[in-house]
Amino acid sequence: QIIFYEDRNFQGRSWECMSDCADFSSHLSRCHSFRVESGCFMAYDRPNYMGNQYFMRRGDYADYMSMWGWSDYIKSCRMIPQHRGQFRIRVYERENFQGQSHELMDDCDNFQDRFRMSDCQSCNVMDGHWLMYEQPHYRGRMMYFRPGEYRNFRDMGWSGSRFMSMRRITDSCY
């Protein structure tokens, strides 16, 4: 469960959400703060789960725009279901599952150091939910991946140069 507020510090009109929302515009004209009461969510600065993303876990976010460095409001959000079981993903160096590939079942803080792989441009998530980051050691902009095939990250709105690290979204995130 997450509660969005129009103004900073949990002021103004509010709207409660308990699932995915592709476009906030019918609920609030803007969003400056929110409170995650349970679960984990991804926030997006464009409708339909596109644009910059940020992982949100339980807690208060009184002024997320200055905290994350965003210049625009949250426009959509996606609930991340809790996953129990194994994690498995295959990452590929180039689009359309081309180039060097590696299967992972755990976090990877640096693709270059671990695999001598300078980029990751497509993936197949077999089990679990994952976050990929544009810099090593889980820093920089991130993107959320749930089970499925991802042939080209640019088709999902990714405008970053590359992904360099990734981690599982585990029970400890909740």
Précis, in short:
The protein has helices at residues 64-68, 111-115, and strands spanning 2-7, 11-17, 33-36, 40-46, 50-56, 59-61, 76-80, 88-94, 98-104, 122-127, 130-135, 139-145, 148-150, 165-168. It has 174 residues and is mainly β. Strand 8 and strand 9 (98-104) form a beta hairpin.
Order of helices and strands: EEEEEEHEEEHEEEEE
- C-alpha-based Rg, rounded: 16 Å
> Which runs of at least 5 residues are low in confidence (pLDDT < 50)?
none
Q: How much helix is in the residues? A: under 10%
* Distance from first to last alpha carbon: 12 Å
Please state roughly what percent of the residues sit in beta strands, choosing from under 5%, 5-15%, 15-25%, 25-35%, 35-45% or over 45%: over 45%
The gross shape turns out to be elongated
Class from helix and strand fractions: mainly beta
Number of helices: 2
Secondary structure elements and pairings:
Layout: E1 2-7, E2 11-17, E3 33-36, E4 40-46, E5 50-56, E6 59-61, H1 64-68, E7 76-80, E8 88-94, E9 98-104, H2 111-115, E10 122-127, E11 130-135, E12 139-145, E13 148-150, E14 165-168
Antiparallel strand pairs: 1-2, 1-3, 3-6, 4-5, 4-7, 8-9, 8-10, 10-13, 11-12, 11-14
Protein name: Gamma-crystallin M3
Note the main attributes of this structure.
174 residues; mainly beta; elongated; Gamma-crystallin M3
